[in-house]
Amino acid sequence: MFTLKILIVEDDSVSALLLQRALEKNAHQIIGIADSGEKALEILDENRADIVMMDINLAGELDGIKTTEIINEKFDIPVVYLSASSDAETLNKVVGTNPSAYVIKPFNIRELNMVIELAIFKDRKEKELQKLNNELEEKVKQRTAELYEANKELTKALEKEREINELKSRIVLNVSHGFKTPLTSILSSAQLLQIYAEKDHPFKTKITKHAFKIENSVRALNNLLTSVLFFGKADENKLEFKPKKIFTGAFVKDVIDTVNAGIDNEVTIRTEIGDMPKTITSDPELVYQVLENLLSNAVKYSKEGKHVDFHMKIENGQLEAIVKDKGIGIPKSEQGQLFDRFFRAKNVGIVEGSGLGLSIVKKCLEVLKGSIEFESEQDKGTTFRVTIPVK
Length: 391
Hints:
By secondary structure, the chain is of the alpha/beta class. It has helices spanning about 15-25, 35-45, 65-75, 90-95, 110-195, 205-235, 250-260, 285-300, 355-370; strands spanning about 5-10, 30-35, 50-55, 80-85, 100-105, 245, 270-275, 280, 305-315, 320-325, 370-375, 380-390.
């Protein structure tokens, strides 16, 4: 049993004396005996107590319940009520003051000691819990403040990144546009050289050969710049769906002619067009990008002298296109990255490319609200299936 400093508040002197002797017998120190609430508060102002034994009925204006309310607010000391009454009305009155315990007179000394120990234990645990709650609240406030500051810094960083990206996009767009004009001039000059070389000229063969190389190189660079410009628009959210009437026959021929013009490995495109109306309505530029990139890739990664199958039809308001090759295929471990920008599989070897074609296809299909699926096996080829809503 530990020693406690106890204040007894009891207006019956005999009961107070008996209580004092019982407590002192258990080595507790009595700091005072008060017969009123007013006197109890005066004693507590001058002396520290560990616990207060409080009679409910006291002399003076303050009864035990009101006195306990003041002690709770001012001193935060545990209070054990003493009362000869245990009726429901009395119990209801004391509950509101959150007493540490309640002892019925006449009390049993052993029971009294146990009640005091429990009251002290309860008080300490409540204070420990309150301390933990306070520490937790402080940590939450501190963490909230840190998160607020971190969020401010993150917002600044994101804003800075957005500004940098916008500047980068503008630079890329301006530089790309700047390249377009000289490239067009170079391409025209290369084509003129080929025309001039058709006449009798001692270097006719060499002129034709090098003019052809220039033309192919310019076309490749022009395609790269077109891809860069495309993503410049996409990154600035300027890529919009602009539906127009498309004459299907001329449109498909244009796509095939463009791809055939860039073939340098003697690969042929076998075209099969199913039921197609004379005209459809969609965004011609985006649909063109999808078909041209898929066909160009299929040709590029096909083996010398092989063929690429291209099937297209309209069914249930959907443009369905299939591009199938028997080329190098895509390694299974890399198929998840297939539509990432600048991604090129490890097995492409010396075949040139930017790694932008399929990411352009994916972006166009997002705007067109279309879909794409593929099957591929390394060294056996790849098949792409595209579906695009049309009217």
